[in-house]
Design goal:
elongated; alpha+beta; four-stranded antiparallel β-sheet; about 30% strand; Alpha-Beta Plaits; about 110 residues
Length: about 110
């Protein structure tokens, strides 16, 4: 009888379709349906960046987001679970920005600080 010593490492193979589903699930785990306030949209990125800078200087604890939907850059703020909560903050912003429109969207979990 021969004594055979085999050592090695198993590497699991995960189907790429399943892998994408797992990654997608990780992304949505930290998001939920909610509201943000749209403060501007324009094709001029410099204008949107200046509005964002103005906002984060005034409200450093409120998240600010810029997204691109051709041909416009959208500037939205906040992560609100309810339309009422977004509306209360919207009242503070009236007149200071080109728009103050509440939009239903996917939001990140709100900050707790």
């Amino acid at each position: 009888m021969a004594n055979i010593n085999v050592s090695g490492q198993l590497t699991p193979h995960i189907d790429p379709i399943i892998e994408r589903g797992i990654d997608s699930n990780r992304h949505y785990r930290n998001e939920l349906s909610g509201y943000r306030i749209q403060l501007a949209f324009d094709s001029d990125k410099k204008l949107i960046d200046s509005l964002r800078l103005k906002f984060i200087t005034s409200y450093p604890k409120t998240e600010a987001y810029i997204s691109f939907e051709a041909p416009y850059f959208n500037f939205m703020v906040g992560d609100y679970r309810s339309e009422i909560e977004a509306g209360l903050f919207k009242q503070q912003l009236l007149g200071a920005y080109p728009l103050t429109v509440i939009q239903r969207t996917r939001i990140k979990l709100p900050r707790i600080d």
